[in-house]
Specification:
By secondary structure, the chain is α/β, with parallel strands linked by helices. The protein has one domain: 3-Layer(aba) Sandwich (Rossmann fold). 40% of the residues lie in helices and 24% in strands. It is built from 7 helices and 7 strands. It has a 7-stranded mixed beta sheet with strand order 3-2-1-4-5-7-6, sandwiched between helices. It is globular. It starts with a helix and ends with a strand.
Length: 205
């Protein structure tokens, strides 16, 4: 009975959520679109001609937000384990970013030409074990940073989801070696109870 009541409360809260309602009105697939839009409004990450890699893209709300800011010259390359319905100006790859074959395919379609922006909203399936969950997202972030070092243009920008916990400070220090400025940001649209936080690397060195 308690589980049913808790689930019912969550659904009620979700439907009343300001950003859930706004996403429905604006045609975004999820409220997550506003996390990127709020970050971009402050730091001006996207220019019309930019080429962008979106890691952990499903259901596609970040792609939707970015595609609306791109000109005909701009393009998005998106990857996720889950399927994603088409988004304009977006080439989607379904697969595991950690799989060397998937990574090789991505490198081929971007034609070995470095990109302007890399974003990652990837996160592990939350187990409730904070130590385990932190270790998993740290691993994802490290792999993402490896990709950024190889495929992000000088002066390009980077946004990555993380959790506060063991290894977080060390990852921030590592980012500072590669970017002119590193910002820790929790957008207003990120729920207070969520452990997520975003790291923004501005102007790759």
């Amino acid at each position: 009975m308690k589980k049913i009541r808790t689930k019912k409360n969550w659904i009620t809260e979700h439907l009343r959520d300001e950003y859930v309602q706004k996403a429905q009105q604006d045609g975004y697939r999820s409220r997550a679109a506003y996390k990127f839009l709020q970050i971009n409004a402050q730091y001006k990450l996207v220019k019309p001609s930019h080429r962008v890699v979106d890691l952990g893209s499903a259901p596609g709300s970040w792609c939707q937000a970015i595609s609306s800011l791109l000109s005909q010259a701009g393009e998005i390359y998106a990857i996720d384990l889950l399927p994603m319905d088409p988004v304009k100006k977006t080439t989607f790859i379904q697969g595991d970013f950690r799989d060397p074959n998937i990574l090789s395919f991505l490198e081929k379609i971007i034609e070995k030409d470095p990109v302007d922006l890399v974003i990652s909203d990837m996160a592990p399936n939350i187990s409730g074990n904070k130590v385990r969950d932190q270790a998993l997202i740290n691993d994802l972030n490290e792999i993402t940073l490896d990709f950024v070092q190889d495929w992000l243009k000088p002066k390009g920008n980077f946004v990555v989801k993380s959790f506060m916990g063991g290894g977080f400070d060390e990852f921030v220090i590592k980012l500072k070696k590669h970017f002119k400025r590193v910002i820790i940001k929790k957008p207003d649209s990120s729920r207070d109870r969520s452990a997520e936080i975003f790291l923004i690397g501005l102007e790759k060195l």
